[in-house]
Specification:
homodimer, alpha/beta, elongated, Rossmann fold, 3 domains, six-stranded parallel β-sheet, six-stranded mixed β-sheet
Chain lengths: ~325, ~325
C-alpha cells in the first residue's frame, strides 16, 4: 500500500510537507501542493488509505458541521447526530463554521484528518459544485438542510418555500391582505426560498407586496427588534407578519408589545423553526415547525449505513404550520 | 521508546487487545486488562508516549465535556471553548455526558485517545477523588463549574451559594418574608450550594423556611411548570420565588400567568444563569448572571497555557444579580 514516505521519497519533499498537503493543513505553496498531489495520484495513494486514518478508525466517531453551537436550531441538530452516534457506539466530533466557506472546508478537512469519515454537513456558504466535489470524494458525507441536485441521494433537506407559502395562505384565508416578512440578511438558499414562498402566495391571491413590507434582519434578537422598529417607523403598514425564524418573531413581538401593539388582535405573527420551549413565548407562537431533530437523525443514519440507493431522489421534508396564539383573523382598524 | 507492539510481544496478547486496553475502548476482561497494564508499566510505557497520540498531535484540538448540547448554558460554554481554540488554531472536539459518571469517563477517554489532551471538563457526576485522579494523570485537563479542593489550581467555578444568598437577601430587603425555591431534582453540588445560600439568608434574617416552599423540579420546562402547579395547589403560600435556573423561572412564570397570578405584583421571581436572549421573557427576568462564557474562556486558556501556578487557589467567580422586571416590593394582599 502506498505511503506518505514513498511520496516524500519520490518528490524529494520532507514528510512534514507531504503530510500538510495530504491532510490539507498548514501552508504549502500551490506549486508544491500540485507536485505532491500528482505524485500521490501516480502511485495510487488516496486519503482513504492514509495510515493516519487507519489508525484513528479504531475509535469510531461521527462528525457534524454547523453554523454556530449556541443557536438552539444547531444545538438540536448536533444533539440528534450525537444520539445516533451513541446508538452506534460513536462519539461526536463537532465543528462550527460561522456560515463561512473557508471555515466549512476547514471543518471538513479537520474531521477527515481525524479519521472521522461519517459527516453530517450543514453548509450554507460552500457552492453546490464544491459540495458535489466533497460528496464524490468522500462517500460518507451527507448534506443536511441543503439540496444539491447532482448528489441529491446524499441530501436531507426542507422545502422552506412550501412552508412560507402555506403560512402566507393561512393569513390570507383569515382576511389579511397587507402581510410583511422579516427575512434573513445573510444571502443563502433559505433566504431566497422562504421569501419566494411568501411572494408566490401573495401573487397567487392577486396581492401586491410593497417593498417596505420586507425587512432584512441581522443575526439574532437585535435583527428582529430593528425590523419591528423599522415597520413601526413606517406606521406599521401591515396587519400580519412572517418571520424567517422564531428568534426574529420573538424579538419583534416584544418590541411591538412594548410599543403598545396588541398581538395578535392588532398584528398576527408567524415564526419558523419551533425549536424553543414554548415557555419562552407569550402569546404562544404560531410557527412553521422545522423537524430538524428527525432530519438530523435521518442524515446521521444515512451517513452510517451508506444506503443511498434507498432514496435516489434524496429526502425532502416539509414544515408543518403549528397553530398557537399569535395569529388572529383580520379585524378592521376601528374594531381594534 | 516502548511501543504497543512490545507489550503485545511480552504479554502474548494481540495488538488489537493491547490497543483496547491502552486506549480504554471496547471490552476486555479484567484479568487481561490488569496483565497488559502491568506489562506496560514494567517497560515504562505511558499513554503520553503512545504513538497514536503523537501522530494525532499534528492536528491540534481542544476538547470539551458537557451535560447536553441542546441546553443554552452548555452550548454557550462549548462555544467559548471553541472560540479560544480557534484563536490558537485548534478545532473543537465535543462530548456530552448526560450527567452520568460512566459517560463522563468515556468522554474523557475518547478525547485523550484522539490525541486531544487539552480538555475543559464540566463534570457533575464523577466524584471529587475521580476528578483529582484524572487531573493528576493528565496535566492539561481543567475543571469548570466544579471546585475540587485537592486540584483547585485546575478549577474555574462559580460560588452559587453567594448568588442565592444575595438574591434572597434582596427579596427580604423588599419586604418579602415567605420566599420559595424551585430547586433541581438531580443531586449535585449546585443543587446543594444554591439551596444553602437561600436557607442561610432566610436564617440570618430570622425567617423560617416551610418544607412546602421548596420544590424539586425535573429537567427543563416541565419541571418549572409542575413546581408552579404544586405551589398553586397549596394556595400559593409564597410572595417571592427563586428558581434554580431561568428555564424553571420562565416555565413557572408562564404557568402562574396562565392561572391569573400577576408577575411581579403578586409574585416576584428571580432566575439563575442569564444565558438566554431577553426577548424570551415577559416580564423581563430578574436573574443571577452565571458568567459562563467568560469562565469557559478562562478554563480553555488555562488548559492551553498550563499556567496553574498563577492561581494556586483556583479561579472562583461570583454571580451578579441583574435587576429587570420580574421582582417588585412586597405588597399586602389587599393592595394587589
Amino acid at each position: 500500500m502506498p505511503t506518505l514516505k514513498e511520496i516524500a521519497e519520490i518528490t524529494g519533499y520532507s514528510m512534514a510537507t507531504v503530510s500538510r498537503v495530504i491532510n490539507r493543513q498548514g501552508h504549502v505553496s500551490e506549486k508544491t501542493k500540485l507536485h505532491i498531489e500528482k505524485a500521490a495520484k501516480e502511485i495510487g495513494f488516496t486519503r482513504e488509505n492514509n495510515n493516519r486514518l487507519k489508525i484513528n478508525s479504531g475509535t469510531p466517531s461521527i462528525g457534524v458541521v454547523i453554523n454556530r453551537i449556541s443557536s438552539p436550531f444547531y444545538s438540536l441538530l448536533a444533539q440528534s447526530v450525537e444520539e445516533v452516534g451513541r446508538e452506534h457506539n460513536r462519539h461526536l466530533m463537532l465543528c462550527s463554521s460561522g456560515y463561512d466557506a473557508n471555515e466549512e472546508q476547514k471543518a471538513i478537512d479537520f474531521l477527515l484528518s481525524h479519521g472521522c469519515r461519517h459527516i453530517v454537513l450543514h453548509s450554507k456558504a460552500l457552492s453546490d459544485s464544491a459540495l458535489e466535489g466533497i460528496c464524490r470524494q468522500h462517500s460518507d458525507v451527507v448534506l443536511i438542510g441543503r439540496h444539491v441536485e447532482a448528489v441529491q441521494e446524499r441530501c436531507v433537506w426542507l422545502d422552506s418555500q412550501a412552508g412560507t407559502y402555506q403560512a402566507t395562505q393561512h393569513l390570507i384565508n383569515l382576511g389579511h391582505r397587507r402581510i410583511g416578512f422579516i427575512n434573513l440578511a445573510f444571502d443563502c438558499d433559505d433566504k431566497h426560498n422562504r421569501l419566494a414562498g411568501y411572494i408566490n402566495a401573495m401573487k397567487d391571491n392577486g396581492l401586491m407586496v410593497e417593498p417596505d413590507w420586507v425587512q432584512n434582519a441581522d443575526w439574532v434578537e437585535v435583527g428582529g427588534r430593528n425590523a419591528a422598529r423599522k415597520l413601526l417607523s413606517q406606521g406599521l403598514p401591515v396587519t400580519a407578519l412572517l418571520a424567517f425564524n422564531d428568534v426574529y418573531a420573538a424579538s419583534a413581538l416584544r418590541e411591538f408589545q412594548s410599543r403598545g401593539v396588541q398581538i395578535p388582535s392588532q398584528l398576527s405573527i408567524i415564526g419558523f423553526d419551533d425549536v424553543m420551549p414554548q415557555c419562552y413565548f407569550s402569546p404562544a407562537l404560531t410557527t412553521l415547525k422545522y423537524p430538524i431533530a428527525v432530519m438530523a437523525r435521518k442524515a446521521a443514519l444515512l451517513s452510517l449505513t451508506g444506503n443511498y440507493a434507498q432514496f435516489p431522489q434524496g429526502q425532502c421534508y416539509y414544515p408543518t404550520l403549528i397553530h398557537r396564539e399569535s395569529v388572529a383573523p383580520y379585524q378592521h382598524e376601528h374594531c381594534v
